[in-house]
Request: fold
Amino acid sequence: MKVILNVDVKSLGEEGDVKNVANGYARNFLLPRNLAVPYNEATVAIFEGRKAEIEARKEQKRKDSASLKEKLESAAVELTMPAAANGKLYAAVTANVVAEALAKLGFEIERKRIEIPGSTIKSVGNFKATIKLYEAQVAEIHVAVKAQPVEGAAPAEKKAEKKAEPAKEEAAAEKAE
Reply:
């Protein structure tokens, strides 16, 4: 079934695009949600009248995406996460964590648009993540993961100190006798 899209539909197309889709997909999903209209002479005439308006919106989205790309690439994301002495993180850095950090910097980015190489970051260091913007535009951001000192991080040292203290007390008691 041929349809004309009313709005941008992820993984299908943009507003004003003519697409050939399965009958059930059009009948059960696109048409009831007003995401598309059937392709016929009347709807083609309506969209031809709106063509300039649609192109202006697409151009505005491209400009917004380009300016957002520049701002994102100039921003530095720094995360402080609890980590072991060897640099391994106790909790992995996911796209959701990066999205929350970007929100604190004033960028509202969906976590689904953020791609981290290997899907998560599991150690301390500097990494690059990509963010999918409008159409084929992609912004690359730098994520710096730093270790947060953890309370009780050196239990082996504390145990060694505790063992040494009773030995000193015993040695002092033997000298006293």
